[in-house]
Specification:
This protein has 413 residues and is of the alpha/beta class. It has two domains: 144 residues, Rossmann fold (3-Layer(aba) Sandwich), CATH 3.40.50.10860; 232 residues, NAD(P)-binding Rossmann-like Domain (Rossmann fold). 45% of the residues lie in helices and 16% in strands. The chain has 14 helices and 13 strands. Strands 10-9-8-7-11-12-13 form a seven-stranded mixed beta sheet. It has a four-stranded mixed beta sheet with strand order 1-2-5-4. The longest helix is centred in the last third of the chain and has 25 residues. The protein is globular. Bound molecules: glutamic acid (GLU). Belongs to the Glu/Leu/Phe/Val dehydrogenases family. Pfam families: ELFV_dehydrog (PF00208), ELFV_dehydrog_N (PF02812).
């Protein structure tokens, strides 16, 4: 498959918004470059005694609005351009959802499924040893992303705390509850995405019992599926990295989860047909939710999508070349920087709880999160209307860039 550079996609999205908002060229050129790039070699002693060296990255993109903020991804396909794109998108996302952060992202080139738990812990701790001077609760605050878990965040906070000599839970979010994590953080991204979808459907005057297919069954995808079902949508398609399942009659997400726990995959779930991850995107559904990796929707399949709404729960699932095709076809794309911003919004709530030492109940957290998502959706829709744009992505970018610019100006940057 043709490799599409996600940073190129990100910069095309930015240029498009810059043109519409008539952004000053000096601001545009500043936004096209990250503030700082860290690339470290991480030596790890493997269980068999051999030493292996992994590549780790942290990109600190922009901190006009506050500390750099964004997740860490463990994946064999991680590369510098991907991390740069993801760090840029975090800067936009944090401004869209209105939390006082800049944008950053990190990653390690590794397939964590090939590592033992001990190896994974040593890798995670060593990465922090190598970057701890460049992160901090008011400097740069990592979090989970693809294949990274609360447990990994706990090891990292512990390592950081040992290095600086004091317990510092606010340096990383997405922690386990027992270590200063927030109620609601685990389901936050899925929950937030469903609030955004609900708000969009309200504006469109929703039809009853809409069907939905979701690509990806990780933390984001499976919680989104649960909340979608709870909201009365019919979940007809699901997939994970091993393949997908389809049933026009719909399926019970909880039962599918139990199946996946037992079998280690979705494929073979009784009463469903097998579909590939590519075919899942082309199913006859009302709503399509890419919740896995980048570049799933491109020029070749954008014409074949049948859904009328796409909710981008993954980061960067739509290549820049596909956007005009989807727009021309009248498909509403709810952009990643809005749709999946519930994760980082709840990271912000976790961080404020850590800094104040006062903790909220799950109801309180989700209520605050819901307000962030409602406000962000309204702001994006309004900006798009104000600029007479059909696509919400450009509206979201204009909103975010205006907010970042305002902070840059206020600080005299
Ligand atoms: N990795 C998530 C994202 O892409 C969450 C980042 C965070 O909480 O800092 O938005």
């Amino acid at each position: 498959m043709l490799k599409i550079n996600p940073f190129k996609t990100a910069m095309e999205q930015l240029s498009h918004a810059a043109e519409k908002m008539k952004l000053a060229p000096e601001i545009l050129s500043q936004l096209k470059k990250p503030d700082r790039i860290l690339h470290v070699s991480i030596p790890v002693r493997m269980d068999d005694g051999a030493k292996k060296v992994f590549d780790g990255f942290r990109v600190q993109y922009n901190n006009a609005r506050g500390p750099y903020k964004g997740g860490l991804r463990f994946h064999p396909q991680v590369d510098m351009d991907e991390v740069k794109a993801l760090a840029f998108w975090m800067s936009i996302k944090n401004a869209v959802v209105g939390v006082p952060y800049g944008g950053g992202k990190g990653g390690i080139i590794v397939d964590p499924k090939q590592l033992s738990k001990g190896e994974l812990e040593r890798l995670s701790r060593k990465f922090i040893d190598l970057i701890y001077k460049n992160i901090g609760e008011y400097v740069d605050v990592p979090a989970p992303d693809v294949n990274t878990t609360p447990e990994i965040m706990a090891w990292m906070v512990d390592e950081y705390s040992q290095l600086v000599g004091k317990f510092t839970p606010a340096v990383i979010t997405g922690k386990p509850l027992s270590m200063g994590g927030s109620q609601g953080r685990e389901e936050a991204t899925g929950f937030g995405g469903m609030v955004v979808l609900r708000e969009i459907l309200k504006r469109r005057g929703r039809k009853k019992s809409q069907s939905i297919a979701i690509q990806g069954f990780g933390n984001v995808g499976h919680f989104f599926a649960l909340f979608a079902q709870k909201a009365g949508l019919k979940v007809v398609g699901l997939s994970d990295s091993k393949g997908g399942i389809y049933s026009p009659k719909g399926m019970d997400v909880k039962k599918v989860m139990e199946w996946k726990k037992q079998m280690g995959q979705l494929k073979g779930y009784p009463g469903t047909a097998e579909v590939t991850n590519e075919k899942l995107l082309e199913l006859p559904v009302d709503i399509l939710v890419p919740a896995a990796l980048e570049n799933q929707i491109h020029a070749r399949n954008a014409k074949k999508i049948k859904a009328s709404i796409i909710v981008e729960m993954a980061n960067g699932p739509t290549a820049a070349e596909a956007d005009p095709i989807l727009n021309r076809r009248g498909i509403t794309v709810v952009p990643d920087v809005l749709a999946n911003s519930g994760g980082v919004a709840t990271s912000y709530l976790e961080w404020t709880q850590n800094l104040s030492g006062y903790y909220w109940s799950k109801e309180e957290v989700l209520k605050k999160l819901e307000k962030y998502m409602i406000d962000a959706t309204a702001a994006v829709v309004n900006t798009s209307e104000e600029y007479k744009l059909k696509d919400l992505r450009t509206g979201a970018f204009i909103l975010a860039v205006s907010r970042i610019m305002e902070a840059m100006k206020a600080r005299g940057l």
